[in-house]
Amino acid sequence: xxxxxxxxxxxxxxxxxxxVTRYDFGPGHPMDPVRLAxxxxxxxxxxLDRLPNVTVRSAPAAGDSTxxxxxxxxxxxxxxxxxxxxxxxxxxxxxxxxxxxxxxMHEASALIAGQSVAGAEAVWEKGGRxxxxxxxxxxxxxxxxxxxxxxxDAALAVARLLELGAxxxxxxxxxxxxxxxxxxxxxxxxxxxxxxxxxxxxTLFPQTGWxxxxxxxxxEGTAVNLPLPAGTxxxxxxxxxxxxxxxxxxAFRPQALVTQHGADTHVEDPLAxxxxxxxxxxxxxxxxxxxxxxxxxxxxxALGGGGYAVADVVPRSxxxxxxxxxxHPLAPEQETPEExxxxxxxxxxxxxxxxxxxxxxxxxxxxxxxxxPADRLDQAVLATxxxxxxxxxLLP
Length: 396
Hints:
Helix 8 links the parallel strand 7 and strand 8 (300-303). The radius of gyration is 20 Å and the shape is globular. It is of the alpha/beta class. The chain has one domain (12-392): Histone deacetylase domain (Arginase, Chain A), CATH 3.40.800.20. 36% of the residues lie in helices and 10% in strands. The protein contains eleven helices and eight strands. It holds the Pfam family Hist_deacetyl.
């Protein structure tokens, strides 16, 4: 009899640079960089940055040749021009209400991209894990800013893994919004599997991510979209995730896993309409850690993303992510440190949450144990499985 051995504790490169908070669209914009500062403060308050297997590090900003892995050189030049002049370039999505121009737009965006690219290099070379919660800016296109995103660090990280020699990379996006920019970057590339769970495009930006979007002619079945009905809560969200993601990763056999953990699925998020708890977000982060160990040799790069409940939700969600990646998960019932709560009040004039939980059970029923063809969530899962599972030799 062979005894089950727990997976080895893996190294974690945690990417942080104070200058990522210069990614600032100005007062009143939902993408408030305080959410990043408060996350790192909570990570430090729990001592996660001082664990023996954790290295906190920064990386240089992505240079033009790296940005060119995904972005048109003319677009990069336009970002610099608009940042310097303040004159909008609406054809490039720059200087819009979603993406206002600011002086450090190129430098801050390239810095965030540099952290994610370095994270990709770290997981490929070390076979370990990396986290850049400032990243996950998944809407930026090759030649256009979109949805608060200037440079697509997630797509750049995947492209760097391919450049380093990876033959199969999986990208799983659990942000409430469709990961459209990453999907578009690898639409016709059979080496990359993109999976996005998101609120249905009928009710949320960017109005893409239908189940029928399955990849280009040379990569059919490698774009996977699971649009969920508005109002979906923990049980449905977790049911959908487990009905689609583990089976596809097992079939695809990625050599590295890149994940995007937008916290805007949360019931308190002001810009979307799902009803997911912090506890379900933690369950999915833990599931993806296990799937990386099982199917990707432990190579796992985790990114942040959206999330606009900047004090109540984002710092707790991404601190759980860091703790899970470090192999030292935090107990949900654990209290948030008093010094961190004081910092939240000082920075935001809001009362900080008292515990690392929303008090939810975060349970679900397995889809393969039976489904209801009249249920809207089960209909969504079935549509996605029928669209892509046969391409991977799986039964819908």
